[in-house]
Structures are given as C-alpha cells and as structure tokens.
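Hi R.,

Here's the chain you asked about this morning:
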Amino acid sequence: MIFSKPLVKQVRNRLNCKKLIIACAFMPLFGNAAAATIADDNFSQCKVNLAQRAQAAGFSSTITQTVIGNISPIERVIALDKKQPEFTQTFAQYIQARVTDYHVRVGKKKLQQNKELFDKLEKKYGIPRQYLVSFWGLETVFGKHKGKMEVLDALATLACDERRSEFFTLELLNLFTLIETKQVAVEQLKGSWAGAMGHLQFMPTALLKYAVDGDNDGKVDIWNSEVDALTTAANYLNNIGWQAKERWGREVKLPVDFAFDKVTFDQYYPLDYFKELGVKKINKQALPTYEIQAELYLPSGHKGPAFLLYPNFNVIMTWNLSKSYALSVGLLANKLVGAKGLEFIQQAQTKVKSYSVADMKNLQSQLNILGFETGEPDGIWGPKSRQAIRLFQLKHQLIADGYPNSDVLITVNSVFSKTETITPHTNQES
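And the predicted structure, written out as tokens:
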C-alpha cells in the first residue's frame, strides 16, 4: 500500500464526503435502502447490488463500473471460510502448528535485527516488541507468506455470501476509498483469502484508519516495508486499547476440587476472586495481588490447560476473533522473551478426545431441544455453546467445564433415549 503525503488532504476530503465507516466498521451508516445487504447467490446480481451501494456512497464510475465490473468470484474462498483451522483443529493441534521452534528462532533474530525500531515503537506506542513480532510470525511467517489471492475478488466473494455479508461489504467499500484516492493500485492488491494484506495482514478498514509511514520515505507500503508494517501494527494496537503495563494473561493451575459452578465462562471477575477459588500460577505460586479483571478459559476442558485472560487478550481478539489465535499470539510472545510457553504436560492431551464439526452441530441441536439455547447449530464451540453445555453439566452433576467432552455427549444421548417425546437429531456436517 502506498500513501503519498500530498494525498493526505485529498484523503480527508474524500472521507468527509463518503458515508463510509472506519472506526465502527461493523455498523451500517447508509440509509435503509443503500445499507441493505448485497448478498445474493447470483454473483452477477450481487455485483449490481454492490455497484448500487457504491454509487449511493458517492464513488465514481471508475469504481462502480470499471473496478466492480472486473470483479470475479473465487469459489475456494467460501470453502476456506467454512473450514478455518480455529473451528476444525483441536487446541493442541492449533498451537503445535503455530508456536513452533522455527517461529521462536526466527522471531528472536527479528527482535535483534530491529532493536532500534522496536525501542522507538515501544516508547511511542507502548506495545512490547515481542507481541509485534508474534503477530508478524503468525500472520505471514515474518513476510514469507503474504498471500496471493486477488483481494478485490476475495472480499466481493465474501460480501456476496450471507454469513458475514455486511462486514465484508464495508471492508470492500473502504478498499474502494483506498483505490479511488490512489493510495493503492488495483494490481498490487494481493493478500489472504479473507482480504488481509501485507506483512501483518491488515484489512482495508484498519489500513485506512491506522496506516503510518514508519520509514519516513513519503509513502506507506505494508507489502514491502517491514518498518511501515510494524509501525502501523503498533499504532493499531495502541488505538484499539492495548494496556502498556499489562500482560495478555497467563497459564494457571486449578485445584483438584475447583468449584466450576462458581465461574461462568466468557465472563470477567476480579483476579482476587480466582485466588479465593484456589487458582495458582502454573508453578503453584500464588497469583499476584493486582487489581485486574480476568476470565477463565479452558480450551480443552478440565483435562487440558487452563488460562486466566486479561483485558489485553480482547485487544488481540480484535485483530482476529479467535481465542486459539489469541492464545498463540500470547504464548509465542512469551517464548520470544525467554518463557517456556505452554507448561501444561502435553501427554495429558491424550485424555482429551476431539470432537468433529458434525458432533458439535448434533450436540447443539440436541441441547436446543432440551432447552439449553446454543443458537443456530453451526458446529462452532463458541460462547453460547459453552454456556449451554455448562448449564447442562450442572443439571446432570457433571464437571461444569463447558466443554463438549465424551461425558456430555453420552449424557445428552442418554437423556434423549429416556425421553419418549423427543427424537434424536443426526445432523450431517455441511
């Protein structure tokens, strides 16, 4: 991405005249007709809808006719969206594939090679260097894999799909602004299947709002300039709420008789509350006396590792809305500065049996029928499913860890078999 300094005034004027969302990219800003979803199974009709949306936003014919006219669907993008590793891999598989010896070894070299830059970024933005390098490593393996997808086509494909149409439509509109103000050229727009670009894989909205010319050469190039990309990342994290003097969280050890009934998942409590419940550091030392809110997370249930997550963890999830991803960032960052990383005994993971997307969909359907609301069955172990499973476990005297373990699956099936008026569902994986 190239932002020339003489374009700053032009960009500001352009942003003022367009009704685009930058800071609040999830909220439609147009009138009811213009803000209606563009999603349509017929891609040609979806392009017509997109052109109308862009025209209503004030874009020129270059965008509404030429750029949109040249967009084509990428079928593989939808397949990749449905099979994201965050949804299909166990926690152990996910971490082992990302927090590798290679990432640690190369990441430490990057810390040394860019010491002067990181000194500057820490002072100005308050973001510890190990997190910037961790994001860099996880996103593109330090620039080795920036993505070769046509970003316009990828974003349009996702905008035309109902699952997250409005989010990707707004990203596409903000990319149109970058194109129309000549901050990027269409031919350079290569990136991931989800439309993220450059060394740190920024979405268009983030680029439009947070891009910084870190090397002071009069332009911002997040594809070719490591300095620009890392400076933009530091600026982004600073602006979305990173607390400079706090960590992301920590791995912890639960007591054998931990009171699971006293903790609701995906909810924050004072750190002292977990001390009262007997939670300790992984080395069995007491938790620090510190006024901070914390959330308990068990990515593999009570038989796997346990974590207390602090507010900075949510900042990481703003970058990527996946707890497995955010834990990878935190664990890799720890290892880059000498920590051992995940302390949980890996052999114990053999006790944790994985579940398939089909298993999860079936469980969600069954829990819905039994009155434990999970939302629309989608095979994803998200907050609603954790809460529903926990409530079911509490009712049936199971360990209430919110995880879809074999005890839960067996008990749910048993409840169904004893209930004459309920027929078990056998949903197939889509």
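Confidence is low (pLDDT under 50) at residues 1-34, 424-430.

Let me know if you need anything else.
M.
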